[in-house]
């Protein structure tokens, strides 16, 4: 009985200490699969897309299925930041184009120079319920941002970024899981241009890639 009481007391102290700890900048898991919604201030655009993310090799794949003239169309982009390349893939037609990627790879999570703006419990109905999240503010690569991540695990929840071209951009993440469902999906298919083939077209970044998907499926 004494052992149980001591254990309960220690557990209570541990939980209390964890809830009182000061939030710190963090990095999200290096391998993740999930989905997000994307909307822009100046065009009231909205998009749902799935993603696979690999921080180790600086790769990300974004895909979405939409409808044009009652026909299902999938828009699929593979971003290789280390090589400065973005592939637009059509797996049904087995075609692939290769364009320059202008973005610098920025891992998901909270930059080290961010400032904490607050901590809240989402959906809390009682003790032990809800999701504890931290919201941070800062400037990165000349862009102002707000990012919200879970206190435990540093899983992305929302990102709010002020861009010159689109105004405020909001990304809301959900269905996030650690790891890759299909690791091969982050490699270009055999029918994509090889490394020796030069990129063509206008340089793109993450926001212009997602915006292009929205324009095609609108």
From TrEMBL:
Alphabetical list of InterPro entries matching this protein: Ependymin (IPR001299)
GO terms assigned for molecular function: calcium ion binding
Keyword Mitochondrion: no
Signal peptide: 1-16
Keywords for the protein's UniProt record, in alphabetical order: Signal
GO biological process, one term: cell-matrix adhesion
GO cellular component terms given for this protein: extracellular region; lysosome
SMART domains: EPEND
Family of the protein in this entry: Belongs to the ependymin family.
PANTHER family: EPENDYMIN-RELATED, MAMMALIAN EPENDYMIN-RELATED PROTEIN 1
Protein name as catalogued: Ependymin
């Amino acid at each position: 009985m004494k052992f149980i009481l001591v254990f309960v007391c220690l557990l209570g102290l541990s939980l209390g200490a964890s809830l009182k700890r000061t939030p710190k900048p963090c990095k999200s898991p290096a391998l993740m699969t999930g989905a997000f919604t994307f909307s822009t201030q100046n065009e009231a655009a909205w998009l749902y897309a799935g993603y696979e993310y690999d921080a180790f090799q600086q790769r990300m794949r974004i895909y979405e299925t939409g409808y044009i003239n009652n026909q299902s169309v999938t828009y699929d982009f593979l971003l290789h930041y280390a090589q400065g390349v973005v592939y637009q893939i059509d797996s049904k037609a087995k075609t692939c184009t290769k364009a320059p990627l202008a973005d610098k790879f920025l891992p998901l999570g909270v930059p080290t120079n961010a400032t904490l703006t607050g901590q809240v419990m989402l959906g809390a109905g009682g003790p032990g319920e809800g999701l504890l999240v931290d919201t941070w503010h800062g400037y990165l690569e000349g862009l102002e941002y707000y990012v919200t991540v879970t206190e435990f695990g540093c899983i992305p929840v929302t990102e709010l970024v002020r861009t010159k071209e689109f105004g405020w951009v909001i990304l809301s993440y959900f269905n996030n899981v650690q790891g890759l469902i299909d690791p091969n999906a982050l490699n270009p298919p055999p029918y994509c241009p090889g490394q020796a083939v030069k990129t063509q077209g206008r340089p793109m970044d993450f926001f212009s890639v997602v915006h292009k998907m929205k324009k095609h499926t609108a």
